Amino acid sequence: MNNEVFETDDEGFLLNLSDWNAAIAETIAQREDIQISEAHWEIIQVIKQYYSEYDHSPAMRPLVAYIKKNLAEEKASSIYLMKLFPGSPAKLAAKIAGLPRPENCL
């Protein structure tokens, strides 16, 4: 694990979004037992793009729709996202991307 120092809330979400970088993403992912691949980075970039466009983290349905519009239809499914980010994909992807917790996510 790297020596990045950053503060999180009790769920592991960054308190200061400007602290985020790739090393912090790797650290958060490791804490969630995820080894980040190119496919993960692709979704992380898309969710960050969504956040910069709409100023909030997407829940699952808006994330899937956004991926379909901006990435690829075959990657725009909850099944695909569950394989990358098990449990609650929108929540976990937002956490690793250094974004706030999506509202209405379990």
Structural account:
By secondary structure, the protein is mostly helical. The chain has a single domain (17-96), classed as DsrC protein, C-terminal domain (Arc Repressor Mutant, subunit A), CATH 1.10.10.370. It has 5 helices and no strands. The protein has helices at residues 22-31, 38-54, 60-70, 78-84, 89-96. Helix 2 (38-54) crosses helix 3 and helix 2 (38-54) crosses helix 5 (89-96).
Q: What's the SSE pattern?
A: HHHHH
* pLDDT averaged residue by residue: 93
Question: Any idea what the CATH superfamily is called?
Answer: DsrC protein, C-terminal domain
Tell me what portion of residues adopts beta-strand conformation. under 5%
- Strand count: 0
CATH topology: Arc Repressor Mutant, subunit A
Low-confidence stretches: none
**Straight-line distance between termini:** 28 Å
Overall domain count:
1
- Please bin the fraction of helical residues: 40-55%
The CATH architecture comes to: Orthogonal Bundle
SSE order and pairing:
Blueprint: H1 22-31, H2 38-54, H3 60-70, H4 78-84, H5 89-96
Structure summarized in a few sentences:
The protein contains five helices and no strands.
Key structural traits:
single chain, 106 residues, mainly alpha, Arc Repressor Mutant, subunit A, globular
